[in-house]
Design brief:
The complex is a heterodimer. By secondary structure, chain A is of the alpha+beta class. Chain A has helices spanning 10-31, 39-49, 180-189, and strands at 56-62, 70-76, 79-88, 91-100, 104-109, 112-120, 127-139, 145-156, 158-161, 164-168, 196-205, 211-215, 221-223. Chain B folds into two domains: 3-100, no CATH class; 109-236, Immunoglobulin-like, CATH 2.60.40. Classes of the chains: A alpha+beta, B alpha+beta.
Chain lengths: 228, 241
């Protein structure tokens, strides 16, 4: 049978294969938005999109599973940067990011409002205390209010990484208690009821226990996609 | 085992790249059989033809070393590895196409603007291009619209952001812009009056749009600033209302 293509030497075939593999991998990487090899590379790329530089990676949260999502938490001066990405065979693929223009930010899990995650831009912060009033007040048809529950809660932070803290609120009522307040607390703690939040205050302390600042956000937002 | 088989085994013992040994043996056997046929044709008997053909092939050691040099061990294995690399890379492209479909190459070359311009928009002079970080910003068009019945209006800036870093998405603008007019009024993304920025990512050239919503009056100019990066540009509108 007549040959239409020249017979290549083994060296030429090697070069041809390497070129073809490189082109295919480049195309695949392009279609996957050029995944990065590491969390640091992902942070560097994302901060360039925000026209920032010199961000510090504080913590990488992971969802369970081999291909569970990754959430990168970083700070840049008084700004906080959260980046969501997913691991692929080619590396970490960018999903979305959010720049938080506050030096302290708190969020809770979607179905567990008592598991509170806090980011702090100040590297001097070593610990924190959180206090909050949770409750449920129902408005009656005649305009009067019926307070089902109103309790003050406090929690000491658990340091996850520099600038990253967790709080876990503890219930006040025993599990078997049958009062309206106890039931309401259980529903709030299970995420079945949103409840009212008041008097949220977070005190930030340095290594020596000196008070750095008191942060008073309006409330705690829940976040379904962040991993910590 | 006959003499040729022994000779062949000695030769192949020198060839370190094992996958090529079968092909080499096939070729040596073909040469040997051709040689034997030639000797038989000129009248030699079978044993003599075989012996002469084997002698003509040469010393097993020398032939073996020569073939080992020609079928390089390292080059051979590199070649086999790259064959697998090509298959894996092509599989990666196939999976990517299945996952994401064919890319819109036409959109890569000339991406459409994010906000379509309506007829009632009036063109106004665009600010000068500028560079910030990895991006070069070019103003495609700057327009404004004002409802004469006092229902407000809008300044719309369509921009392109170029970058040679094809792995970067376009610049982040959403929630990061702030504008100020000649009367000192501030336009922000989190409360009225609003300013909004959007980016649609394309390789090399992303499309961006900045909208500033006007309500009570048309200002003389608007200065739009990126809150974290610090760059700004000014749009001269002319005012009058």
């Amino acid at each position: 049978m007549r040959r239409f293509l020249p017979k290549l030497s083994r060296r030429q075939k090697l070069f041809r294969n390497l070129t073809a593999a490189a082109v295919c991998l480049f195309l695949a990487a392009w279609m996957w938005d050029f995944p990065t090899w590491s969390a640091e590379n992902m942070l560097e790329r994302t901060e360039r999109q925000y026209l920032l530089q010199g961000s510090e990676l504080m913590y990488v949260g992971k969802d369970p599973g081999l291909f569970g999502g990754r959430t990168l938490y970083a700070r840049n001066g008084e700004l906080l940067l959260v980046i969501q990405c997913s691991p692929t065979p080619l590396g970490l693929r960018y999903a979305w990011s959010e720049l938080i223009e506050e030096p302290v930010y708190c969020t809770t899990r979607f179905h567990d409002p008592t598991d509170i995650f806090m980011l702090v831009a100040n590297p001097a912060c070593a610990s924190a205390q959180l206090s909050i009033t949770l409750g449920e007040t129902v408005l009656r048809y005649d305009g009067s209010e019926d307070v089902w529950m109103k309790e003050d809660y406090a929690a000491q932070s658990e340091k996850v990484a520099s600038g990253v803290f967790r709080f876990q609120l503890q219930p006040h009522f025993a599990g078997e208690e049958d009062s309206l307040a106890a039931k309401t607390e259980r529903e709030i703690f299970n995420g079945e009821r949103v409840g009212d939040q008041e008097n949220l205050k977070i005190r930030l302390y340095d290594e020596n226990g000196e008070l750095l600042r008191i942060h008073t956000p309006e409330g705690l937002e829940s976040n379904a996609s962040w991993a910590w | 085992m006959d003499h040729f088989e022994l000779w062949c085994a000695k030769v192949l013992g020198h060839v370190r790249f094992v996958p090529d040994r079968a092909a080499i043996k096939k070729e040596l056997t073909a040469h040997y059989e051709d040689s034997v046929s030639d000797f038989l044709r000129i009248g030699y008997d079978k044993d003599l033809a075989a012996s002469r053909a084997l002698t003509a092939l040469g010393d097993a050691e020398e032939v073996g070393r020569g073939l080992d040099r020609a079928h390089s061990f390292w080059l051979g294995w590199l070649w086999r590895v790259t064959r697998w690399s090509v298959f894996l890379a092509m599989a990666a492209v196939t999976v990517s196409l299945w996952q994401f479909g064919m890319p819109e190459i036409a959109e890569w070359i000339d991406p459409p603007p994010i906000v379509e311009v309506r007829e009632e928009y009036a063109q106004i002079p665009s600010p000068a291009d500028f560079s910030a970080g990895a991006y070069h910003f070019h103003f495609d068009e700057t327009l404004y619209d004002w409802n004469e019945e006092g229902e407000g209006g809008q300044v719309l800036v369509n921009l392109s952001a170029f970058t040679p870093c094809i792995w970067l998405d376009g610049p982040e603008l959403f929630d990061l812009l702030e504008a100020r007019d000649d009367r000192g009024r501030i336009y922000r993304s989190d409360r009225f009056p609003y300013t909004e920025g959007y980016t649609k990512d394309y390789p090399l050239r992303s499309r961006c749009a900045v909208s500033i919503f006007l309500d009570e009056y048309v200002p003389q100019w608007l200065e739009v600033r990126h809150k974290t990066a610090g760059w700004s540009f000014r749009v001269e509108i002319g005012g009058g209302i």
